[in-house]
Specification:
Length: 328
């Protein structure tokens, strides 16, 4: 899990840097649209490696696809994320409010369908019975603020460094390189620390991340618009260490009590929650930042958004106190 967390965190930062390279390259005049090309070699490599490395595993009694659950989950995510993502740019038209109003009803229908399938002994897309596991339930609650803050930060800092501080896309991406390097190293150290101190490592990680965010907010306030690699280095490094002490351990907590027969479903619930929260982070913190810029200016909008994320880190730290002391 330490290796998985290290790879996941490093890849998120690497994507930011590679995206900057592609934007700067401006392939065939595509501008920022070329960032989508970063997925092409990744997908091709994944296809080749999957054929060569992943063993074939077929169940003698394969479960049917949960069509109603899949449809309702997709509808739930769309009714929430699309208006939050597009609403500000579109001027918050009527359809955005109707979509947000529909979200709780669609989500309730999804839960009802999944609960019925679970009671009938079938395998729904998201079995409600899994949430009876305390470790999974509390771990998912930690994933939400962590992932919302992570993706929101990555979006906001990229916009602020390029549009406000005037950095080129590559320089803006490299400004976060210390965060990536420290994240990777501390993710590998995490298992040893967990073996000695248990899940209190998550609490310590939240404290470190909070300190790092505070230092970056201070750097933005003091040095703006001359904000770059050097000014962000202390805060980014400390924040990276804090994030690395949280993410892999939270993964372990979530899956620690999931029965082996439901390992696939449990990990699917974990990743779906994380990916939804990542999208929600860009939609919420990104919208907040862009809404504040016209009235407050880029610097104060950035500082305010970082402080809001800091509040989310405090929430993560408080929630981590309720985790089981040790985890397998």
């Amino acid at each position: 899990m330490g290796l998985y967390g290290a790879t996941a965190g490093l890849s998120m930062i690497a994507g930011q840097i590679l995206g900057g390279v592609l934007v700067a390259a401006d392939i065939a005049g595509t501008g920022w649209r070329s960032v989508f090309l970063v997925n092409v070699p990744v997908v091709l490599a994944g296809l080749v490696l999957a054929v060569r490395v992943v063993p074939e595993t077929r169940s003698p009694r394969p479960e049917p696809v949960d069509v109603p659950g899949t449809f309702l989950l997709a509808a739930s995510l769309l009714t929430l994320l699309v208006p939050l993502t597009e609403g500000r740019a579109a001027g918050w038209p009527l359809w955005t409010w109707l979509s947000l109003a529909a979200f709780p009803f669609v989500a309730a229908a999804f839960y009802a369908v999944e609960r019925r399938a679970d009671r009938e002994g079938r395998t729904p897309l998201v079995p409600p019975s899994l949430f009876a596991l305390t470790s999974l339930r509390r771990g998912l609650l930690l994933v939400l603020p962590f992932s919302i803050g992570f993706s929101g930060f990555m979006f906001v800092i990229a916009v602020a460094l390029q549009e406000g501080a005037g950095l080129r896309p590559v320089a803006a991406g490299l400004a976060l390189a210390p965060l990536a390097v420290v994240f990777f190293v501390f993710s590998l150290l995490g298992p040893r620390l967990v073996a000695r101190y248990g899940t209190r490592v998550v609490t310590a990680g939240a404290v470190l991340q909070g300190v790092g965010l505070a230092l970056m907010a201070l750097a933005a306030w003091r040095f703006w618009p001359h904000l770059g690699f050097v000014e962000l280095l202390p805060g980014a490094a400390i924040a990276g260490a804090g994030q690395a002490l949280q993410l892999p351990v939270i993964y372990r907590v979530i899956l620690s009590e999931v029965p082996p027969a439901r390992a696939g479903v449990g990990s699917g619930v974990m990743i779906t929650t994380q990916q939804s929260a990542l999208a929600l982070g860009v939609a919420t913190l990104g919208t907040l930042f862009l809404s504040l810029v016209p009235g407050m200016g880029m610097r104060d909008a950035l500082v305010t958004t970082l402080l809001v994320q800091l509040a989310g880190v405090v929430l993560t730290g408080l929630l981590s106190l309720r985790l089981p002391r040790m985890v397998v």
